[in-house]
Amino acid sequence: MYIGSVVVVAYFWRLRQAYEFFKRLNIPGPPPILFFGNFLELIKSKRLSISMKQWTEKYGRIFGYFEGHTPILVISDPDILQDVFIKSFSNFHSRRSFPLADQNAKLVNMFSASGLRWKRQRFIINPTFSSAKLKQMTPLINRSINMLMKKMSEQYNKGQPFDIYAYYKRFTMDTIWSCAFGLDTDMQNNINNPYLIHSQQLFGEKVNVRLIVLIALFINELNKFWRKIHLSIGAISYWCRHYIPITKRFINEDPPTWIMKQAYKIIEKHQKVGQTNRTDLLQLMFESASDEELIQDSRATDITNEETEIEPPLIRKLTKHEIVSNIFLFMIAGYETTSTALSYITYILATHPNEQQKLQHEIDTHFNPETEDDMPSYDTVSQIEYLDMFIRETLRLYPIAPVVVNRQSSEDFHIKGIGTIPAGTRIAVDMYSLHYDPDLWGPVDPHIFYPERFETKRHAMAWIPFGAGPRNCVG
Q: What is the pLDDT of residues 171-229, one digit of tens each?
């Protein structure tokens, strides 16, 4: 009993010390509550990005808040962000680590990998998204688009309101599996397709997972323990479903586990079939496949601080586990984000008839009336400048995943007017404050939808819905 009391007192004393982090640096921010940090305020707002914007308005472009007792430095000063994401990238090459994540695990993808492991994976996957490769994928994309337009026509003819978001989700998933992984799923016609069902379940609420993540967030000193509990729950559920069939009635199969199992099957199938002529992400990863279970990365040179170049690593291979993890990554990264972006674009089209008419006119000028039913080529779409500005302006107003754009310092770094920030500090971006900043986006009110604002060159960090620098969104 005595030892337990001492441990509790010592732990809460440690929390008190942790909450002095920003005070020692003279950085303002919302006052934390013992153990919870600023989590209760986040619950009230329901969205972290909204809370960040409110705190920026109150405390300025540099402030700090706490997730549990973990300090998060929030920045919306574009010059400082340019230093973090681009100029000093060698010090900020990794994203912040998340609860339950294990950097040394076999199943680590490009999003969560750090250091040389990230560099190796990024170097191999980068070429998939070159103009040349995307042009070769155009027929596959057009096939998915044709099916979507057929579905839209069917719904229009019914003369009844319908949820277009559901159709965008099926279209997006259909395109991802076809273009990236060479799997013809026909999800737009088959709403009971298991790939679609498990993908949708992945974004559903799982109370047990959310609970463990929260506990790991508040008591991160025991992250390895929480990770083992999380893995044990998954293993027990799998064992029960596999060996006690009756449990399938009330224990659902874990969506990430199911998707990764399918990914392993795809790899096994490819190993039997061999080389194919398809141009997709999966083929590119297969060409760099290694038989090793885990690759020990070696340093060729320091991680580059150039914005557009990634120096080649010594080892240019992926393990089968990394291939599986990246299949999972591209599925979840592309599914919800793309379908949501399409929904926002549709909303803007419906609520801004003048801009819609201008966009239609711009598109019409790039088509020959005699072949207007033909699908546009990659080059033709690239030449429609107003379409590009229209999409960019939509994503400025409605960034899809603002909270995933973050970094973690590997060394101490200096901020002018603030001082030296310790190594390991987690840095978040208040994207809404950036995207709605009148100094960055004037003279037209940033709250007004105005695509033409992109005709003016802006600050490099004014628009970052996909991040910035070498570690921006690869797709």
A: 999 998 888 887 778 889 998 888 888 888 887 755 556 788 888 888 888 888 988 88
At 9, which amino acid appears? V
Q: Are 128 and 303 in contact (CB under 8 A)?
A: no
Query: Hey, how many other C-beta atoms are within 10 angstroms of the C-beta on 130?
Result: 10
| Distance in angstroms (rounded) separating the CA atoms of residues 435 and 392 | 11
What is d(CA 2, CA 270) in angstroms, rounded to the nearest whole number? 60
* Burial class of residue 72 in the structure, from the number of CB atoms within 10 Å of its CB (0-12 exposed, 13-18 middle, 19+ buried): buried
* Omega of the bond leading into 443 within 30 degrees of 0 (cis): yes
Contacts of residue 356, defined as CB under 8 A and 6 or more positions apart, other chains included, come to 349, 350
> What average pLDDT does range 228-246 have in this prediction?
86
Nearest-angstrom CA–CA distance, 164 and 75: 36
Q: Is 240 known to sit in a ligand binding site?
A: no
Residue closest to 456 by CA, chosen among 411, 396, 400: 396
For the chain, the 3-state helix, strand and coil shares in percent, each to the nearest 5, are: 60, 5, 35
> How many Å apart are CA 43 and CA 36, to the nearest integer?
11
The per-residue pLDDT for range 449-475, each reduced to its tens digit, is: 999 999 999 999 999 999 999 999 887
DSSP letters, 56-80, are HHHH-SEEEEEETTEEEEEE--HHH
Measure the CA angle with vertex 235, ends 230 and 237; round to 5°: 95
Please determine, for residue 83, whether its predicted confidence score (pLDDT) is greater than 90.
Answer: yes
- Tokens 């291979």 locate to 317
**379-411 per-position pLDDT tens digit:** 888 999 999 999 999 999 999 989 899 999 999
Cα–Cα distance between 180 and 320 in angstroms, integer? 16
Rounded Cα distance between 199 and 399, Å, is 22
H/E/C letters for each residue in 402-444?
Answer: HHHCEEECCCCEEECCCEEECCCCEEEECHHHHHCCHHHHCCC
Whole-number pLDDT of residue 268? 85
Entry pTM: 0.91
Say if residue 148 is exposed, middle or buried (CB neighbours under 10 Å; 0-12, 13-18, 19+).
Answer: buried
Residues constituting the chain: 475
For residues 235-257, average pLDDT: 85
